[in-house]
Every structure is written in C-alpha cells, then in structure tokens.
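step 4 of 6: structure.
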Amino acid sequence: MPKIIDKGAEARLLGSTFLGVDVVIKDRVRKNYRIEEIDSSIRKERTRSEARIMCAASACGARVPLVLWVGSSVLVLTRIYGAMLNRLVEGGRADGQDLFGIMSDAGRQLALLHRNGIVHGDYTTANIIVDRQHKAWIIDFGLGELTSSLESRAVDVLLMKRSVSAALYSCFLESYLSSRGYDDADKVVARLADIERRGRYQKRTLG
Amino acid sequence: MAVLGIESTAHTFGAGICEKGRILANRKIMYPIWDKGLIPAKVAEFHAANTYKVIRGALTEAGLGVADISGIGYTKGPGLGPCLSVGMVAAKTIAVKNDIPLFPVNHAVGHIEVTKQAFHVKDPLVLYVSGGNSQIVALSDERFRHYMVYGETLDVGIGNMLDSFARAAGILPAWGSEVARAALGGSYIKMPYTVKGMDFTFTGLLTFATRALENNSVRDVAYSMQETAFSMLCEATERALLLSKKKDIVVCGGVAQSDRLKQMLGSISRENRANLFAATNDLNADNGAMIALVAEKMQDSGQSYAVDDCGISQRYRLDSVKITW
C-alpha cells in the first residue's frame, strides 16, 4: 500500500514500489480554490512538463530521480533516500564543512542543468536531498522550464540566494561560476543584479 | 491621550484617531476616479483642499480637541510623492504648532497592524494586496524584527493591473471592484499563469487580457483574468504558508475587499487548518485610523523622531521597517 511521505503545496508524495523498485508517486491534487478549468490544465501541464524536464536532466547526467511512469496528474519517480538540505541548514545537523561542500555541489548541479538548457524554477534548499555520500540530488521540477533564458536562470540563482545565509550562498555561487564548460554564468549573475533592482521599491543606485 | 493618523498615499486623504488600540474616529475623502488613472499633482491639490475638513471631522467625531492628541502619525510611504507631501506637511504643521511628537509610518505596516489588532492575531502570514503592491510577508524572528518578504510581484501590483484593465475595457468607474462586477457569470478563456517560486508577475497577463478584448466579451476576459491572477496569488500564498508554518493568514490592502479573493483564501486556510482574517472594507481601503494605530505603537514602544527627520519616501519598502512592538 502506498504511504504518504509528504504533502506539499501542490502535490502529495506517496512512497511505494514499482517494478520492484522503491518509488515516490507525485500526485498533483485538485485545488478547490481555483476553477476546474485552470486547475486541471495546470495539473496536467505541470505533470507533463516536469516529466520532460526530469528526463532531460537525467540525460545530461544531473543527479535527479528517474522518471518511471507518467499519468495525467501523476508521476512515478525513483526514490532518493537522504536528508532535506533545508533541514540540515536549519538544524545545523551537518557540520560546517559538509554544508559548504554540499552547497558547492548544489552550485555545480545547477550549472550542469543550465548548461543543458534546463531551468529548475524553484531552486531552494527545500528541493535538494542530501544522500549518505553528501551528494546533492535535485527534486521537484514542477516549476521548471526547458529554456536558455538568462532571466529564468537568474531566478534560479536568486531563489537559492534568498533561501540560505550569505556565507553558504557565496560558496554556492563560487562553484556555479567556476563550473567547467559553462560560460554564461557571469551573464546570469549580471541579470540577477538587474532582477533585484527591478523588485518593487528596491533601493536603486545610479550609473 | 489619543493619537492622530494622517493618510495620503494615493487617491484617499484620511484622518483617524486611536486610543489604546481602539479606533475613535476614521474620516476620509477620495479623489473621484472615473475613466482615467491618477495624475499625482491633481490628486495632491484635491487633498490639500480637503485637509482641514477631514482632520477637523475626525477630531469632532472623536469628541476631542488638538490638546487631547499626544502623538501624530503620517504616511511616509510608499506612495505618490505629491500626495504624501500633503499629508506630511499637514501632520508637521499641527505637530510643530502644538509641540506634539511626530511619527513617520509605513503604509503597508498600517494595513497589516490594523487587521492584526482587529482580530488579536499575533504572528500571521500576510498577503498584502493593493494598487501598487502585492506581497506575501511575515514577521522575522531575527534581532532586526521586521516583515520579511516571502514572495512579491516582480512587476506591477495586482490593483494596478485590475485598474489598467478596467480602463482598457471601458469599465466605469475604472477600478478593481467594477472589474469583479463585470466578471460575474463569465466563461473561462485560457490565459498566461506566471508563478516563480513565491513570486509572480502580472504584466504578461494584462497584455494578454487587453488583446483578448478584441475577440471576446468584456465579461469573459474580466472573469478569466481575475480568476488567473487570484489563483496565482493563492498558489504563492499557500506555498509560503507551508514554508513559514504559520497558523493564521491575514489578507489586507485595497484588493482584500474582493469577496472572490477572500473566498479562495478561505478554501486554502480550511485545507491547511489555518485561520483567515480580513478586516472590514473601510479598514482595507486606505484610511487614517491604521496610521494612528501604528503611530501609537511606535510611541508606546519608545520610538521618537526629530521633526527634520520626518520626510517622505515614495519607495519606502515594508521589509526595511523595524518593528519595535
């Protein structure tokens, strides 16, 4: 019997087995606040798009769960065991060294995705699982896009910046900037500064 | 002793009076809007012409004289510069002449605190939706206690979007509540839906909706645009609710007068076992009482300002305000 692992804002996650493998079933549930037309099209489109993006991410060697099956609002994914990075950061359970190593890994993984035209869309510590080997696994591509848009890539970096301390962010950014074979990182960071200036009533500097 | 609050952010000039968190008077006058947006200089002129009448009206309503006022709050921002200046000058004039302490208040903090006070809510997740703003915030527990932004619009405020659409569609008077009326009984047309994490954008939706007017009825476009925009706000709010683990939701600001938005947020709060709080429409519309209420909290928690430091700031960000109470 599938067991509920977690309930997020848009989906519930069920643990089960599929073809003898431990899996997570991601079930996008009906949201009663929005009208049926918007709700069903969002659930269907996001499920399909998430499957497409995760397959692309697997193909380029990024650490993401494998997609085993796709339904109209259901995805079956291989299960990754480990600790959520946001819990590690909040609880300070990993020692300092580990967290910095993991943040570097998260930066490299993001550079790998971006180099291959994949944007995550919600790249925060809540969407990274750390396995026993201290490797970062990226989950939840529900807001992802297949695009090389600098703007979308910059939003990925911005969301991580907002979700961790300045020290952890600088570690993340350093590895993002120095990842091999990825030349657009500087442009992305420049765009990030633009976005931050565009935020409502942000202090703006002249020149 | 009571505190006077003066509000003049945009189309409304208001004066309110509070004592120990209780509202004694709340008077306002609104610049008449019909088919055009606001021209700041003209609105400021209107405010200046009504300043005395509104403030005097509030004192009369409360049965008080200037001698009974122990502090004066005014809106420092965010808002339209010329309009803010009128309120600031009025507040300074009364304060300096009668030697009363002056308090510069953030407009958004006013909307939030007045709702918290009305329902005795301590630590809610807040969806603040008005003409120029759309933000999801909650109090931080850092040493610099302030409202931390979880998500916000990356371009225009939702109220601005609704007003701009009203003008494009010829809806009169051109503002959000009339768009809601025009949307009744509409059918859904698919529209762009943009949520980035807990942030959202409205200009793409506005452009799409404006163009859709060429081939569709105003009713269907208004309905679809409103449903799409509110769904975006609700999705971001629900995500912030789960992330922040708050138990109460406050919705405030001008657009919080929307029954449809409150209905949708009600559904989210029930499904997440949270409570939803929305103040009455006269407190969600811009008003002076909320400014008086915050000024009183500022005064009681020991804040003080030199008259020369009391200016205005059109871009006074909510998350830069220190919360000392």
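step 5 of 6: annotate
 - Chain B has a mean pLDDT of 96.
 - Chain B touches chain A at residues 78, 132-133, 135, 152-155, 157, 188, 190, 193, 195-197, 199, 227-228, 231, 234-235, 238-239, 241-243, 263-265, 267-268, 271, 314-317 (CB under 8 Å).
step 6 of 6: archive
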